[in-house]
Design goal:
Number of domains: 2
Shape: elongated
Strand content: 15-25%
Distance between the termini: 50 Å
CATH superfamily of the largest domain: P-loop containing nucleotide triphosphate hydrolases
Radius of gyration: 26 Å
Helix content: 25-40%
Strand order of the largest sheet: 1-11-4-10-9-5-8-7-6
């Protein structure tokens, strides 16, 4: 099934001229990738998009400055995650290297970090290195130092999205990834860089953002105007796949609307719905339904899901995982424990403190270690760095979670609750604190924010850390981390 975008700029005519057909033919013949060693077969929606993105004005256009030119100087494509955005961008990267010869191509991959921008670049590099015809056209193609054409006139480079990275570069094609993370001014800087190039194009491929995605919010505004036929934005392309507002997260029509690869059958619908069952609603809406969300969401876990997990606490303390967390001003602290039984995680609170000292917490943790020989003691390295060091110094296996691992812990424990893989013993403090936990996005990821939360969450975070480490290390020997 060909799933068209919910909103998009219409072509100038039904029989419009496009470079897309030749590019589709080239990709079908030449494309090799680790995930498709036998060649590439594009979905119909991918062909449709390439044709529309590379629309050209007819040679008979009344304005001689536009005759035969690429229609779009800017284009934004937005759709759900895992729909093949990187593949499309890589195909367009190869196009950018070839179409501007012999005048000299300057293709850039931009993203919030060089590593992210390199994802698209690496796909292009692999294709060139594994195709005899293409490899002859490039005298240098390396992982780190760019792809250079055989005559030296054109190149493809990777840049982090910083204004200094674009200064003085006459860009012919800019592939801008992660537009929802783009800093203000970066898109305009890239557009300015293409101003002196015939058929220069800045193309952004992204998923939806949040209230902090200022650049993407502005581009959406321009895109919606362009899609409605604003003549001032005729050279702005906009292709937005998104579900209708307030659509149920697991509604097949909503999933298809934001995920053309699912509609095409390349990604099984049943698999997507199953995956959505383990995601917080805000994450599902942003990444699967491609809907903008607020920077902060409501409670991290639906109360009904938390209540359903009530039951048995930890039956076996030996070999468990203990975790500790303190409130922001050290007014309270809590130690929690988690252990597995029959494939599920059990958890309960062990002890709470009022106005604790570091020595009190350290002493109690060493006592628990001597008594129960746990696999590890887990803690937030951002809050309790010194206690972690002290535990390590006496040989206690210690799992110190840093920011990225805290985000992973929040997502992983949400999934455990939503799939009924957790039981807790209905401790009143945990029941009280669970609704306090408010999620906040930091770039692509979310975590439970101490600052945004609605009250103390030391018992909640201690429980999450204990569950996360216990589930991660069920079958592994933990050392001192």
């Amino acid at each position: 099934m060909l799933q068209l975008p919910a909103s998009y700029t219409k072509p100038l005519s039904e029989d419009f001229i496009t470079d897309g057909d030749l590019l589709i033919e080239l990709a079908t013949i030449a494309w090799k990738a680790p995930e498709s060693p036998d060649g590439l077969e594009l979905d119909e929606w991918q062909k449709w998009l390439l044709r529309h993105l590379l629309e050209r004005y007819p040679d008979t256009h009344p304005n001689p400055d536009l005759a035969g030119r690429l229609r779009y100087r800017q284009a934004v494509v937005s759709l759900g995650r895992q729909n093949g955005k990187s593949l499309l961008a890589a195909i367009l990267g190869l196009y950018g290297l070839l179409v501007h010869q012999p005048s000299g191509a300057q293709v850039l991959s931009l993203a919030s970090s060089s590593d992210q921008a390199r994802i698209i670049y690496s796909r292009v590099l692999f294709v060139i290195q594994n195709n005899k015809f293409l490899s002859k056209r490039f005298k240098k193609a390396t992982e780190m130092r760019g792809i250079v054409t055989a005559d030296g006139s054109g190149r493809y480079d990777v840049k982090a999205a910083k204004e200094s990275a674009l200064q003085g570069i006459p860009i012919s094609l800019c592939l801008f990834d992660e537009l929802h993370l783009a800093k203000v001014g970066m898109w305009s800087a890239a557009v300015f860089g293409t101003s002196q190039r015939r058929d220069g194009l800045v193309l952004g491929i992204t998923t939806a953002g949040d209230q902090n995605s200022e650049t993407l919010i502005d581009l959406y505004k321009s895109g919606r105007k362009a899609a409605s036929g604003d003549p001032e934005l005729e050279r702005f392309g906009f292709f937005l796949w998104e579900a209708k507002e307030n659509a149920p997260v697991t509604d097949p029509e909503a999933i298809f609307a934001a995920n053309p690869s699912v509609a095409a059958g390349r990604i099984p619908l049943a698999q997507v719905i199953s995956d959505l069952q383990t995601l917080p609603e805000h994450e599902a809406r942003r990444y699967r339904l491609n809907q903008f969300i607020s920077g902060s969401a409501a409670s991290w876990l639906p109360s009904a899901v938390f209540r359903k997990a009530g039951g048995q606490g930890v039956e076996v303390m030996k070999g468990a995982v203990f975790a500790v967390d303190v409130s922001r001003n050290w007014e309270h602290a809590t130690i929690a424990v988690a252990n597995s039984k029959d494939g599920k995680q059990q958890t309960e609170l062990v002890q709470t403190f009022v106005n604790p000292t570091e020595d009190q917490i350290f002493t109690r943790l060493t006592e628990l270690f001597a008594e129960h020989a746990p696999r590890a003691i887990a803690l937030d390295d951002r809050q309790l760095t010194n206690i972690g060091k002290r535990l390590k110094s006496v040989g206690i296996p210690t799992w110190q979670l840093w920011t990225k691992e805290v985000t992973a812990a929040c997502s992983a424990v949400y999934a455990l609750f939503s799939t009924e893989m957790v039981t807790h013993n209905n401790d009143p403090l945990l029941i009280m604190q669970s609704p306090n936990g408010v999620t906040k996005y930091t770039g692509e990821n979310w975590l439970i924010s101490r600052k945004e939360s609605l009250g103390e969450i030391d018992a909640l975070l201690a429980t999450i850390f204990a569950l996360y480490v216990s589930s991660r290390a069920q079958h592994a020997q933990i050392g001192v981390f």
